[in-house]
Design goal:
One of its GO terms (cellular component) is plasma membrane. This protein has 309 residues and is mainly alpha-helical. Helices cover 49% and strands 6% of the residues.
Length: 309
């Protein structure tokens, strides 16, 4: 049985909002936005093995111990730069030592801030740490190869190359920080400068440079092999899955190669300086202490002393 109802008034409040990611992807994810063809897409990029629309699926998640181990490996592997710093200071390469210390410091704290899980420690903004880490790594390669070239006796103001390298590398990193040529380009350019300097020195001396076979056998060849192995690992072996231990090996190899490749302290020049002047050669007229401004009565002008050899 239906009965007619009276008019009833109801107020309805409607509030709608859009969230690009579920719960902002939680602590194990990062919300990423992609714009293409006037469409905007949003999705969670999960870390530390977490999956799902909101990074809530922990079926394949990394354990806390694994996260701590990866952080320690990536950070403590930078301690390998301590021996190159000591070698550089001992050989009076103070600028190179400063660059190695800069690299060691920022690489350590960048990797402490770059971890995917909850074992994270950031002393600065992530972008600043990343830029300084990449710049320090490239500058370490640059200053080491320029030091190996020993340009100072050949080119005056060779220190300009250090400043030029810093400016060009900073520009390249702002354009693309993850490009492979950001590492290979400056390295090949610096190696070209070193090859020209060594060739010029070889032609001038008419002898192979560096001149001793021990330098080639025990330092240059091992250092070059270690550096080549590091570049091959970085370019062809490193992936997101093996990043924490392959990149740690990269740290060890690059720092170790610097210790081998950094040249020894330059020997002082053997050129003879000007010979000391002999005193008392011939006769020497000693000026009279009573003469002032050359105004002396010729009748009273005298010679104080005559020095003979």
């Amino acid at each position: 049985r239906f009965e007619p109802c009276t008019n009833v008034t109801a107020e309805v409040y409607l509030r709608a909002y859009l969230s690009p990611c579920i719960n902002d992807c939680g602590i194990y994810g990062q919300c990423k936005l992609l714009r293409t063809n006037n469409y905007l897409y949003a999705a969670c990029e999960c870390k530390a093995g977490w999956n799902g629309w909101g990074c809530t699926d922990n079926a394949e998640a990394f354990s806390y111990g694994f996260q701590l181990l990866s952080t320690l490996l990536l950070c403590l592997s930078n301690v390998m730069f301590v021996p190159p710093v000591a070698i550089a200071v001992r050989s009076h390469y103070l600028l190179e030592a400063a660059v190695y210390i800069f690299t060691m410091f920022f690489s350590t704290f960048y990797h402490a801030c770059d971890q995917p899980g909850i074992v994270v420690f950031c002393i600065m903004e992530y972008d600043v740490l990343q830029f300084c880490d990449f710049l320090g790594s490239l500058m370490s390669v640059w200053v080491t190869v320029i030091a190996m070239a020993r340009l100072q006796p050949i080119v005056k103001q060779a220190s300009v190359l250090y400043l030029l390298g810093a400016m060009l590398l900073s520009m390249a990193l702002q354009m693309d920080r993850h490009g492979l040529w950001n590492l290979l380009g400056p390295s090949l350019f610096a190696l070209g400068i070193m090859a020209v300097a060594w060739t010029a020195r070889t032609i001038r001396r008419r002898h192979c440079y560096p001149p001793t076979w021990k330098r080639w056998a025990f330092y240059l060849c091992p250092g070059a092999l270690i550096a080549a192995a590091a570049v091959l690992l970085y370019a062809f072996v490193e992936t997101e899955e093996n990043y924490f231990y392959i990149h740690s090996i990269w740290h060890l190899l690059i720092a170790g190669s610097v210790g081998f490749l950094l040249p020894p302290r330059a020997k002082p020049s053997r050129r003879l300086g000007p010979l000391p002047r002999r005193k008392g050669c011939g006769y020497q007229l000693c000026v009279n202490e009573q003469e002032e401004l050359g105004l002396v009565d010729p009748a009273v002008a005298s010679i104080n002393s005559i020095c003979t050899s």
